[in-house]
Design brief:
It is built from 15 helices and 26 strands. It is α+β, with helices and mostly antiparallel strands. The chain folds into 3 domains: about 100 residues, Tumour Suppressor Smad4 (Sandwich); about 190 residues, Beta-Lactamase, CATH 3.30.450; about 210 residues, Alpha-Beta Plaits. Strands 18, 19, 20, 21, 22, 23, 24, 25 and 26 form a 9-stranded mixed β-sheet that branches. The chain has a 6-stranded antiparallel β-sheet with strand order 2-1-11-10-7-8, with no helix packed on it. The protein has a 6-stranded antiparallel β-sheet with strand order 12-15-16-17-13-14, sandwiched between helices.
């Protein structure tokens, strides 16, 4: 009967138990039959386990705080895990594994041969023409494999084509992080289908090749009917060839076959070193291609978050180390889509078309964030969040965020002027804030995202929400505006002090600023009107409200002017008692 292997974040945090006939409990404390005491995210009694009909039935205990994750999804009801599958609770991974052999059941090989890559270089191929033909076709055959599984399937087929003496070929993976290591067959192929039932890779051979020798190893056994491992009536020799470590640690190519007569060690050297050489070449090609594909996947994944300069800076570095969450100064940009709810309601009969339009709108946001070297942090329905200052600190992070915001505003404005544009009717509101935060890879081991956490994120979200109240496109916090005042000369952007407010749900007041395009762009606030509003705001804050009223009347009506007029009107044209120059926001 199979075993359950538990592995925590540290190598020493592990155990292996064979499934009993009945049901066992899994948890953290001694109250459970199988405790994982190292993980405080596991409840005292977290789940019950039952081996039934060739699968493990896992029943999460109701009311547990942390979910059981299986195949990447949180599970609340009973689920079944087959041999080789895993589930995760907290920081601990549980693997359903084939049972370990009993002591003495895996006999030592009759003969053992090891070959280093240097030794194999001097070996001449037997059947050279046929093997070179297979090797020549191998890169093209596996390059266009649609999946990792199909890639492994084609590799084992090529092994059988190139090694006529082999009756079975497999791609195996040994999990070296657990004690004892577990062994899984990722793909296998047989010269005769009936051999599949007799094929069980030797764990002893795999450990010898992957752990001890770290090079190609061949074992020859006495034939022994009824053995549980490779040595049986069908197979009496096997070889294990590790893939390059940088491509796939713990992965190997495994071949096995049957000798027509008893081979002595010199015969092994003569007949099968060329087989090992071929298998090693296949392992090198397969391993190198796996490495390339892995790098491509990592690059594609990172490209959805990072700009090209950031990706170039990350190249050649330890990604896990660079992406770790840490405290740093960041600039956060929140961008929310305006008009999406009304458009979705009006087009309820064609939601796919609305979804396409919203995706295009979100694409404008994310493209401009990445183009300005920002990181995509999250999506919230029809809103996107980006940030700067991580994974590398930058002096111009506020300027880059501001440039991204203006570019987003400009694209939406251009689209709204064209009735046939898919984005006609959409607008956006943007909030930008600067401050300290935790940025990086946030979440659990199996469920995480690249994002940012801290009060600055909440402030950026509040500023984005306040763009509706003040009827402007972009609002900045005080720190961002101060940084921009030193960086901007007005040729690409300007700032206007809007008001001192206390955002809803926050204790600290903020002098919020509107980010404006250059005055030369059509339809934007002129520079003289910006200065006149500044004078009106100073009078408003000083409590000289009649003066503020007269100055505002000279200005064209816009959102911030209207808010100040409305605020003074609601207070009878006179500042309230103990006027502290702060407008308190009554909602988000």
């Amino acid at each position: 009967m199979p075993d359950l292997v538990a592995q925590g974040p540290e190598p020493s945090q592990t155990w292996r138990h064979a499934f009993p006939a009945g049901t066992v409990t899994l948890g953290r404390t001694a109250k459970s039959a199988w405790p994982a005491a190292w993980d405080n995210q596991i409840s005292g009694l977290h789940a019950t386990l039952t081996w039934k009909d060739g699968k493990l039935l896992v029943v999460p205990r109701p009311g547990t705080t942390n979910k059981v994750f299986f195949r990447g999804q949180p599970m609340e009801a009973e689920f079944a895990a087959a041999v080789g599958e895993q589930f995760v609770i907290g920081t601990t991974t549980f693997t359903v594994s084939e049972s370990e052999p009993t002591p003495g059941s895996a006999r030592p090989p009759l003969e053992e041969m090891t070959c280093s890559p240097q030794e194999l270089q001097s070996i001449k191929f037997g059947d050279a023409d046929d093997r070179i033909e297979v090797l020549a076709n191998l890169p093209g055959m596996i390059r266009y494999s649609p999946s990792d599984q199909e890639l492994a399937n084609r590799v084992v087929q090529a092994l059988l084509q190139g090694i006529p003496r082999a009756d079975a070929a497999a791609v195996i993976q040994m999990n070296l992080a657990v004690t004892p290591p577990t062994l899984d067959v990722r793909s296998s192929s047989f010269r005769h289908p009936e051999l599949a039932a007799s094929f069980h890779p030797s764990r002893r051979l795999a450990q010898e090749a992957l752990c001890r020798q770290r090079q190609s190893v061949l074992h020859k056994w006495e034939k022994s009917k009824g053995s549980d491992f490779t040595a049986n009536d069908e197979f009496d020799w096997a070889a294990c060839v590790p893939l390059p470590d940088e491509a796939a640690t713990g992965w190997a190519i495994y071949i096995a076959g049957s000798s027509s007569h008893r081979l002595r060690l010199p015969s092994l050297r003569d007949d099968q070193k060329s087989d090992l050489k071929f298998a090693t070449l296949v392992a090198d090609i397969y391993g190198s291609l796996r490495q390339v594909l892995d790098l491509q996947k990592r690059q594609a994944t990172l490209a959805s978050f990072f700009s090209r300069p950031v990706l170039a800076a990350l190249a050649g570095k330890d990604i896990d180390q660079e992406l770790r969450a840490r405290e740093t100064e960041v600039t956060v940009l929140f961008c929310d889509l305006r008009g999406s709810c009304q458009i979705a309601e009006e087009a309820a009969g064609d939601l796919s078309q609305v979804c396409d339009r919203m995706s295009e709108a979100l694409g404008i946001m994310t493209r401009n964030i990445i183009d300005k070297d920002g990181v995509i942090g999250d999506f919230h329905g029809d809103a996107a969040m980006g940030f700067w200052g991580w994974p590398f600190a930058t002096e111009d992070q506020v300027e880059q965020a501001a440039r991204a915001a203006l570019a987003i505003r400009r694209e939406f404005a251009q689209a709204s002027r064209k009735k046939d544009n898919p984005l006609a009717g959409f607008a956006c509101g943007i909030g930008i804030a600067n401050g300290a935060a935790i940025a990086g890879r946030l979440g659990t081991l199996d469920q995480f995202k690249i994002s940012v956490f801290g009060p600055v994120v909440n402030l950026a979200a509040r500023l984005e929400s306040m763009t509706k109240r003040f009827n402007v496109a972009i609002l900045l916090d005080e720190r961002s505006a101060q940084r921009l005042a030193a960086a901007s000369d007005g040729h690409w952007g300007r700032c206007r002090c809007v008001a001192r407010v206390q955002p809803y749900g926050m204790r600290q007041s903020q002098m919020i600023h509107e980010l404006l395009p250059p005055a030369v762009e059509p339809g934007v606030l002129s520079e003289s009107d910006r200065r006149d509003y500044q004078a009106a705001l100073e009078a408003f804050q000083d409590g000289r409200w009649p003066d503020a009223q007269r100055l505002l009347e000279r200005l064209p009506a816009d959102g911030p002017s209207g808010v100040l007029r409305d605020y003074m009107h609601r207070h009878g044209g006179r500042p309230p008692r103990n006027w502290d120059r702060v407008m308190e926001m009554e909602s988000k």
